[in-house]
């Protein structure tokens, strides 16, 4: 099933990260929890499949900088400590963050609801993850 994902922060005026196509294989997620689990596992697989630091170029071209600046983040994409990400820990963290209200999930501009809320995903649906920014500082 092909979906598109976009990320937003409340502190930003517009979505600076372009929609990213993602294809979920296997069973279609039937609730919010299984959708988050499938997406996190997919992202961890992609992260762990990245080449190590020695295989990457040590510089970015002007074109690379411009492309990455358009997407909202400029970086080398290097895993500096060399450790692989744990899918189980990432899923646990993502589900806990969703339950705690650190981020919200919208499917085609409708909030997904609680983690056990049923879903009826269709091909081409747009998923929007909104990270809620924590406020800090003095009251006065």
Please provide a written account of the structure.
With 140 residues, the protein is of the alpha+beta class. A five-stranded mixed beta sheet has the order 2-1-5-3-4, with helices on one face. The longest helix is centred in the N-terminal third of the chain and has 17 residues, at 32-48. A hairpin with a 2-residue loop joins β3 and β4. It is globular, with a radius of gyration of 17 Å. It has one domain (2-131). It has helices spanning 32-48, 62-71, 87-100, and strands at residues 2-9, 20-23, 103-107, 110-111, 126-131.
Largest sheet: 5 strands, mixed
Report the principal-axis shape.
globular
Strand content: 15-25%
Give the helices and strands as they follow along the chain: EEHHHEEE
Write down the overall mean pLDDT. 78
Quaternary form:
single chain
- The low-pLDDT segments are none
Helix-residue proportion: 25-40%
Which strand order do you get reading across the main beta sheet? Answer: 2-1-5-3-4
Number of E-type strands: 5
The CA-CA distance between the termini, in Å, is: 50 Å
Question: What is the rounded Rg?
Answer: 17 Å
The SS-based structural class is: alpha+beta
Q: What's the domain count?
A: 1
Number of helices: 3
